[in-house]
């Protein structure tokens, strides 16, 4: 059963005006705002409900509404729109308190100017063209991070942008609640999986803590046969059994039940482990980790808590979408001239949400770690547009790197490769993308998502005050060097 997040949230629609225009105009503003909200909610393009909260006319009303938004756990962000002219000094006190994500929707109620009906009453009511410019100034003057969406509110592209930003905002709100459980430490001598956990909690809200592998072993030993039987039945419903070694599969079920006990007890959303620290565990969790990811948990191999947390957050942002999101690693290249590809995989832990086929449970030697051959899910990722995202610690700041990719059907059967696999063409091409990724410091672990977009993650970075680097078809090594140089200067000045 996938965990539900998005249904818990709503977004408040705050409309700006003032008493200057009289009660009839203000009543009309409220009617228009309510009709717009009903249209947005009925569009099918938004993942969450929009709530028309108020037409705000004084600094006191604005400040109180912002306070209410801050302390309402259901409110994931505010959307502002100035139907008339709302003097922006009225917003200073409220905006200085704002702790929720903020979108400025620049639109107007009417699509067309009514040729014969237009008069000064119409002009006094429909002033978004300059009312929103006044509103935009104060956010710029206060150096506020925000999303600006321009266009007619009934148009698909506007509604899709708003829906995408809502998902980014949910990622920001959920980030403040995220707890990561590390079973053991990072893989020895690896640099990129390390990071400043205190700094990350201060900036992103992530609580990253370690539990001993011995604690997990005790939990595994306490799992009952009945719990294992129930987990096996769940496997049978979702996956195809391509092994007769049921005892090995049952051990994975036992590991999964034990980890879920931990997660539910401690409120955990993401986890990491490493094959270097298994102690008396018989198998590295493979199938167990994959099935937990399919339920919405984040995972990071070799103790990589940053990619674990990001996998969890991207899954939450894209909840209800069907493309899939997973922990991923560039593993090896296909360097055929003109058809260069990257083969992504991991030792075991790729999420089955990214396949259109029924994943197979198989048992094979791991070839590393010195433990029993573990059960795992084997499948291919489905073709389609996707992104790779890597969060890295640059020392004093975080950087999120996103590469646009095209996942293709693997060009080989690879019958002797006993792991889930994905094959893709990165933009601009394999060699330039690899150059740009390494230039920016991207990790060997990443989040692969068919549902998240670069814009969605850029908006999340804007909210969380994180540097964003976008690798796409039009980026060159020269332009990337320039961007990184200027970004380094700007972030050091901050």
Automatic annotation (TrEMBL):
Purpose: Catalyzes the conversion of L-arabinose to L-ribulose.
Essential cofactor(s): Mn(2+)
Gene: araA
Native organism: Sphaerochaeta halotolerans
NCBIfam families: PRK02929.1
Note describing how the cofactor binds: Binds 1 Mn(2+) ion per subunit.
One GO term of the biological process aspect: L-arabinose catabolic process to D-xylulose 5-phosphate
Domain L-arabinose isomerase N-terminal residues, every copy: 9-175
EC number: 5.3.1.4
Protein name per UniProt: L-arabinose isomerase
Alphabetical list of Pfam families matching this protein: AraA_central, AraA_N, Arabinose_Iso_C
Cellular component annotations (GO), alphabetically ordered: cytosol
Domain of life, source organism: Bacteria
Entry-linked InterPro entries: Ara_Isoase_C, AraA_central, AraA_N, AraA_N_sf, Fuc/Ara_isomerase_C, Fucose_isomerase_N/cen_sf, Lara_isomerase
Keywords assigned by UniProt, alphabetized: Arabinose catabolism, Carbohydrate metabolism, Isomerase, Manganese, Metal-binding
Catalytic activity: beta-L-arabinopyranose = L-ribulose
């Amino acid at each position: 059963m996938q965990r539900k997040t998005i249904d818990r949230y709503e977004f408040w629609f705050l409309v700006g005006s003032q008493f200057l225009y009289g009660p009839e105009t203000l009543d009309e503003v409220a009617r228009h705002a309510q009709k717009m909200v009903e249209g947005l909610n009925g569009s099918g393009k938004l993942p969450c409900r929009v709530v028309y909260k108020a037409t705000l006319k004084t600094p006191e009303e604005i400040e109180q509404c912002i306070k209410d938004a801050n302390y309402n756990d259901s409110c994931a962000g505010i959307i502002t729109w100035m139907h008339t002219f709302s003097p922006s000094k009225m917003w200073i006190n409220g905006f200085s308190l704002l702790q929720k994500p903020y979108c400025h929707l620049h639109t107007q109620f009417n699509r067309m100017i009514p040729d014969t009906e237009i008069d000064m009453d119409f002009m006094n009511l429909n002033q978004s063209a300059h009312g929103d410019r006044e509103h935009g100034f104060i956010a710029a003057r206060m150096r506020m991070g925000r999303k600006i969406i321009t266009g007619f509110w009934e148009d698909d592209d506007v509604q899709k942008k708003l829906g995408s930003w809502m998902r980014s905002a949910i990622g920001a709100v959920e980030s403040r609640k995220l707890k990561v459980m590390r079973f053991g430490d990072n893989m020895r001598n690896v640099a990129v999986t390390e990071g400043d956990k205190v700094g990350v909690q201060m900036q992103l809200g992530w609580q990253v803590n370690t539990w001993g592998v011995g604690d997990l072993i005790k939990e595994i030993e306490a799992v009952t046969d009945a719990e294992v039987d129930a987990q096996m039945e769940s496997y049978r419903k979702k996956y195809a059994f391509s092994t007769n070694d049921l005892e090995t599969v049952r051990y994975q079920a036992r590991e999964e039940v034990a980890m879920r006990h931990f997660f539910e007890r401690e409120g955990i959303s993401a986890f990491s482990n490493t094959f270097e620290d298994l102690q008396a565990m018989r198998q590295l969790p493979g199938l167990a980790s994959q099935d937990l990811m399919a339920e919405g948990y984040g995972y990071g191999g070799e103790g990589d808590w940053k990619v674990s947390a990001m996998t969890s957050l991207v899954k939450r942002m894209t909840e209800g979408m069907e493309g899939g999101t997973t922990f991923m690693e560039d593993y090896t290249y296909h360097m055929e001239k003109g058809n260069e590809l990257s083969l992504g995989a991991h030792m075991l832990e790729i999420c089955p949400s990214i396949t259109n086929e029924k994943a197979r449970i198989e048992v094979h030697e791991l070839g590393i770690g010195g433990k029993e051959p573990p059960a795992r899910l084997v499948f291919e990722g489905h073709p389609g547009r996707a992104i790779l995202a890597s969060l890295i610690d640059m020392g004093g700041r975080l950087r999120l790197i996103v590469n646009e990719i095209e996942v293709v059907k693997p060009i080989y059967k690879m019958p002797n490769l006993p792991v889930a696999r994905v094959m893709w063409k990165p933009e601009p091409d394999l060699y330039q993308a690899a150059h740009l990724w390494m230039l920016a410091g991207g990790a060997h672990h990443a989040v692969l998502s068919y549902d998240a977009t670069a814009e969605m993650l850029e908006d999340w970075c804007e909210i969380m005050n994180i540097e964003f680097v976008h690798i796409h078809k039009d980026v060159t090594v020269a332009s990337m060097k320039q961007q990184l140089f200027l970004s380094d200067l700007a972030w050091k000045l901050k």
